[in-house]
Amino acid sequence: MQLAIFWIFSVLMLLFAGLVVVMRNPVASALSLVMCFICLAGLYFTLDAFFIGIIQILVYAGAVMVLFLFIIMLLNLKEEVARRLKLSAFFGGGLVLCGFVYAMVKAVINLPEVWQTAPKLETGGISDVARIGFKLFETYNMPLQIVGVILLVATIGVVFLSSRQLR
Amino acid sequence: MDIANFAEASATLGHYLIVSGLLFGIGLMAVLLRRNIIILFMGVEMMLNAANLSLVAFSRFHPVGGGPAVDSQVFLFFIITVAAAEVAIGLAIIVALYRAKQTMHVEDLDSLRF
Fold first, then answer.
1. B32 vs A: CB within 8 A
2. Which of B39, B48, B95 to mutate to test binding with chain A, by most A CBs within 10 Å of its CB?
């Protein structure tokens, strides 16, 4: 059953990811990316990472992609006119991609116990969110505060960037 | 495959790593093939999410104390937070760029080219 859910979500995810590259209209690309992230959250659920899956839907498929769509509609982007592809860039990119795929396949094959199914979990009734919450507020309290400061800095930076005219 | 086998079957670490590698490859293709700067940015986000997927897979397949390795999920929480901040700043830069140059095409944005 878990395997079937894994296949459904991963095939859908890769399909929508491919649509992001293929679609000419930026709005269609952004909506495909939303679906891709939702399917990725489904994959997180198959890995028993429920909290991360919900965060993925809320933050990525919700907030981040709404920001993307908002910017696309704000700038009123039209469909991209096809220009001639630069052959040198195309082959250079293909070379990089082939090298990456080779390195990845080699790494996955050499990994020990890569084709074994996941060990059974014995959580003792403690939920995923409780575990992460305790870890976050006890062990990683200081990084949590720093992340808050990072969000503040990002907010100030965005206001600064969008309020004055760049030349 | 009979019903009992089907109910018991579950994906291995290799499955998840291959899917995450494919997602990374598609994101890389988006960055290399498309010339619209917003689509390029979406490709970068896709690659980031591919890395996140492999991190979650490793946390599930190497359990600590009976549950998934929670440290990596906390780490992922921080990654997602920082990524949200990064997207906000990146889109603000894109809007400023569009205001200055009136184009989204990367080949028209060549004022820094040597």
1. yes
2. B39
Q: For residue A69, what is the domain's CATH number? A: 1.20.120.1200
Calpha distance A46→A166 (Å, rounded): 46
Q: Which residues of chain B have pLDDT under 50?
A: none
- Which of B1, B3, B5, B10 is the best residue to mutate to test the A interface, defined by the most A CB atoms within 10 Å of its own CB? B10
ipTM for the complex? 0.90
pLDDT digits (tens, 9 = 90+) for A26-64: 999 999 999 999 999 999 999 989 999 999 999 999 999
- What are the tokens at A133? 């919450």
Domain that holds residue A143: 127-167
How many Å apart are CA A36 and CA A18, to the nearest integer? 9
Torsion-angle region of A85 (φ positive above 0: left; ψ -120 to 50: alpha; else: beta) = beta
